[in-house]
Amino acid sequence: YLYHSRFTGDTQGGGGQMRTAQIKEEFQIREVDFLNIELNPISGFPTLSDWLLGLKVYFQSREVGISPRTILRVARGVKALKSTFQEYSGELDTFAWESNFGPYMLLPYIAEHFGFRVIAYPHNLESLVPSQSSFYSKRRSPDWFDEELAALRVCDEVHVISREEQWLLRLHDIDAQYHAYQLPEALKQRTSRILNMRQHSQKCHYLIFGNVWNPPTKMGTSELLNFLSISQVHELPFVVAGLGTDTMEEQFRFTNFDFRGQVESPQLEALFAQATGVIIHTVPSTGSLTKIPELLASGIPIIANENAIRTYYNLPNLRVYRNFEELETILREPSLS
């Protein structure tokens, strides 16, 4: 396979890294040889062949009307991205595509043009993620959903991480397969350690954990902290950890909020071991949260809103709230177990 992802598969990272780690591990188990491809930055002026392929892709991607600026962006994208497919055309026959984001939305078209079979593993539907914009048309979500649908229609197989995305794509005549998230082996070892640590640890805080550089996570975490700062549970201790969370401390200066920012693995495991529970609050988005199966495998109770639990329903140790009043009621209970 030729293979492209925006992530390396580092199991110390966030959800995108975990999904990539899973997919790479599955390739290895199936003894699939895959070549991570490096792509050139977009620069320079397109050649005639770039223009011709760019025009083909432009109209294939269901663009409405004629936009010279978008056509130029597409042609420049083709110039930057096509060389690897030219080099391996005839030698390899399959392209595994994870990077349905930014300039890489052109990759299935280019791969198809050079005779590759395309298997897509989108981590989520980027065109429906709040605040995301199309790299080429510059339209904001959800107005460029048609562009993403067109790119996925080019693919021979589409494997999605959530049941909701499978249903939605099938409504648009894309025969998407549900490819459930499974913990990579290295993560299973970590969850086993945490599970053991929890048997001997005093539970002393609620943990709010996530990467707030991710827009839906940041929006949801802000909503949650705004509520907790004015609620009747302000006496409870909350630890807020994860990439970028330290930037929120100035906005929420309360004695019961402990902002840790990015936490290294040993310290994070200790936070998990000592957590009464983890609260997950997100705004509507796509994909599914890889941290939910990780937390459940670690024996940590989860309190999550309905937006956060997509794909994960009716599971033990997972409490769901519809509104902040229900969250407050849950937090006042003597035990989550």
Written account of the structure:
There is one protein chain. This protein is an alpha/beta fold and 337 residues long. The protein has helices at residues 15-29, 48-60, 68-81, 83-88, 107-113, 145-153, 163-171, 185-198, 215-230, 265-273, 291-297, 324-331; strands at 2-4, 35-36, 94-97, 117-120, 157-160, 177-178, 205-209, 238-241, 257-261, 275-280, 302-305, 318-321. The strands form two sheets. It has a six-stranded parallel beta sheet with strand order 2-1-3-4-5-6, with helices on one face. Helix 7 links the parallel strand 5 (157-160) and strand 6 (177-178).
Number of strands: 12
Helix and strand sequence: EHEHHHEHEHEHEHEHEEHEHEEH
Largest sheet: 6 strands, parallel
Classify the helix fraction into a percent range. 25-40%
Mean pLDDT across the residues is 92
Radius of gyration: 22 Å
Poorly predicted parts: none
* Approximate shape: elongated
Write out the strand line-up for the largest beta sheet, numbering strands in chain order. Answer: 2-1-3-4-5-6
Beta-strand percentage?
Answer: 5-15%
User: What's the number of helices?
Assistant: 12
* Head-to-tail CA distance between termini: 46 Å
- What structural class do helix, strand and pairing data support? alpha/beta
